[in-house]
Amino acid sequence: QVQLVESGGGLVQAGGSLRLSCAASGSIFSINRMDWYRQAPGKQRELVAIITSGGSTNYADSVKGRFTISRDNAKNTVYLQMNSLKPVDTAVYYCYAVLRPSPSVTTFRNYWGQGTQVTVSS
C-alpha cells in the first residue's frame, strides 16, 4: 500500500513564495518519476512539473523560471518551490508518482495525493 501526502499549501500575496512537499510512504521499491499537477475551479487538471528518477525536469510554460521541482530520494519526497506567485497560480496542487512497490513487481504503478490548496491574493 502506497500513500502520497502533500503539504505546504496556504494563502500568500502575489509575488510571494511557497514550498510544497509530497512524501511517499508505504511499500516502495523504486520511484520512476514524480509530478506536480494543479486544478483551478472550473478548469481541467494540468501538468505543472516533472522530475524523473535520473533527475531530469520539465515545466509547463506558465511556470518556467518561477517554479522549481526537486526531490530527496532518501525521504521519497518531491518538492515544488514556487516563487513570484501570481493570482492565476491559485489552485489545488496534486502530486503524482509512478513507482514499483516491490522488486517482484515488474510494472510501474501510479498514485495520486489528496491535494493541497494554494491561494494567491492580489
Describe what is shown at a glance.
With 122 residues, the chain is mainly β. It is 0% helix and 58% strand.
Characterise this structure.
The chain has 122 residues and is mainly beta. It has no helices and eleven strands. The chain has strands spanning 2-7, 10-13, 18-26, 30-39, 46-52, 57-59, 67-72, 77-82, 91-100, 109-112, 116-121. The mean pLDDT is 96.
Produce the secondary structure layout.
Blueprint: E1 2-7, E2 10-13, E3 18-26, E4 30-39, E5 46-52, E6 57-59, E7 67-72, E8 77-82, E9 91-100, E10 109-112, E11 116-121
Parallel strand pairs: 2-11
Antiparallel strand pairs: 1-3, 3-8, 4-5, 4-9, 5-6, 7-8, 9-10, 9-11
Keyword list:
122 residues; mainly beta; seven-stranded mixed beta sheet; elongated
- Note the run of SSEs as H and E: EEEEEEEEEEE
What oligomeric state do these chains adopt? Answer: single chain
Radius of gyration computed on alpha carbons:
14 Å
**Which range best describes the helical content: under 10%, 10-25%, 25-40%, 40-55%, 55-70% or over 70%?**
under 10%
Number of strands: 11
Question: What would the average pLDDT be, to the nearest integer?
Answer: 96
